[in-house]
Specification:
Number of strands: 2
Oligomer: single chain
Radius of gyration: 22 Å
Strand content: under 5%
Length: 156
């Protein structure tokens, strides 16, 4: 099968996956509001089991620090580098200082096959984000929200 045929097959299956994923989220949302599931917390059927799991509790950082200390916090924390970049652009932290502590743990090659429209949307998002970070860096305006850059259907 040549590359064009492979791309056609991929596109066909990709559309089916998007449709099934949307249906899965719709059904999952509907099931989450089920009275039976709310009462029983676990329902077993011929097809499998569905369980209603409680969300993980959130912990205030100050509370965590007072109980466990900074070393435990550093063991469990995951840093969102995009938020760090936003804070750097706004002037709250110095990126050169952050970069001293930044290290690469692993470098992997990843290849993504996506529709041209999604690729274009991702490119435009990254361009807007870069432009906004540049603007924040110059003006130090704290009122701009980076999340407003992402269209509602971007990750669908």
């Amino acid at each position: 099968m040549d590359i064009q045929d492979q791309l056609r097959v991929w596109h066909e299956y990709h559309k089916k996956l998007e449709s099934l994923t949307a249906e899965w989220y719709r059904l999952r949302k509907h099931a989450g509001s089920s009275i039976i599931l709310q009462k029983e917390k676990k329902v077993i059927s011929n097809y499998g089991t569905i369980s209603l799991l409680e969300t993980k509790p959130t912990v205030l950082v100050q509370q965590f620090l007072s109980i466990f200390g900074i070393s435990e916090l550093l063991d469990v924390v995951v840093i969102d580098i995009s938020k760090v970049e936003e804070l750097g652009a706004r002037g709250f932290i110095c990126m050169s200082e952050i970069n001293k502590y930044r290290e690469f743990n692993d470098v992997k090659l990843k290849f993504f096959l996506m529709e041209i429209s999604k690729e274009q949307a991702m490119y435009e998002f990254l361009q807007r984000r870069q432009k906004l970070l540049s603007h924040l860096s110059v003006t130090r305006c704290p009122k701009v929200n980076l999340n407003e850059l992402v269209p509602d259907d971007f990750f669908v």
